[in-house]
Amino acid sequence: MSSKERIILLLLAAINFTHIMDFMIMMPLGNYLMPHFNITAQQFSLLVAAYTFSAAIASLSAAPVVDRFDRKKMLMFAYIGFLLGTLCCAVAPSYELLLASRIVAGLFGGLIGAQVLSIVADIVPFERRGAAMGIIMAAFSVASVFGVPFGLYLSKYISWHAPFYFIAATGTLLIPLLLKYIPNMRDNINKEPINSAVIIRMVFPLILVWEIIKEKNERLGILLISTMMMGHFLIVPFLNPFLEFNMGFTNTQTPMVYLVGGTLTLFTSPFIGKLADKLG
Fold first, then answer.
1. Comparing C-alpha atoms, which of 62, 64, 88 is closest to residue 77?
2. pLDDT tens, 178-201?
3. Other CB atoms within 10 Å distance of the CB of residue 172
4. Are the C-beta atoms of residues 171 and 57 closer than 8 Å to each other?
5. Tell me, what DSSP letter sits at residue 126?
6. Rounded to an integer, what distance in angstroms lies between the CA atom of residue 174 and that of residue 177?
7. Left (φ > 0), alpha (ψ -120 to 50) or beta: where does 201 sit?
8. What is the pLDDT of residues 220-240, one digit of tens each?
9. Spatial distance between the Cα atoms of 226 and 228, rounded to a whole number of angstroms
10. What's the Cα-to-Cα distance from 242 to each of 29, 54, 80, 259, 266, rounded to whole Å?
């Protein structure tokens, strides 16, 4: 792997880190947000779900048109919008405004993951792509090992606003590096004339979804990811409140759960990526 590829992969992993930390940090913040805003567990779950629902809507809506733009420009547009949404979360004075800010962050954040993976697929040859994806996915581990525990400590010793300020500041520092090192990517641009069929797909993006899921392999891949995410979000948002309120863990001990789990995947993610390249 060339040094240029490594730099690009590390920058994309850094984007993934801020993006993943943003939606992960909301889950263990229930201990702080529920008493702060005097909200119920159901209202808190809406804060968690708002990001993912708006991200899903944005992804579906953008799917028919996203390949008509330079990948770098689309990534920068989405990332800057995501950082602005996260900054709004940091300054939100009420539950309603925090909920609205999570929706805004999700609308832009939903576009980031697909662009990151698309750029990796475009710049890394197929025979090294598993290792490259392992590096990108390791950002999930870093967000667990460092991001979530650090965010919880910020919440404990400063305020619940602090993790969102941290994410917004870190992302802002990344922007000049992204502009410098991420190449313009125009080879992917779909030059198909905009005819009635294209317009119909733009207006009704579910038609494009149907065209995708008709393919067996793509349908199985989407089903696998969907069930994994469903299991994740059914359990993880209430893991921290359960450990503290039901099991008696202190708010100093609970970050260790994320630390240990994330540390393990920090090693397994790149290893499995290399294994995929070797074994198929």
1. 62
2. 999 988 877 656 566 666 666 666
3. 13
4. no
5. G
6. 5
7. alpha
8. 888 888 888 788 777 776 777
9. 5
10. 12, 27, 35, 17, 25
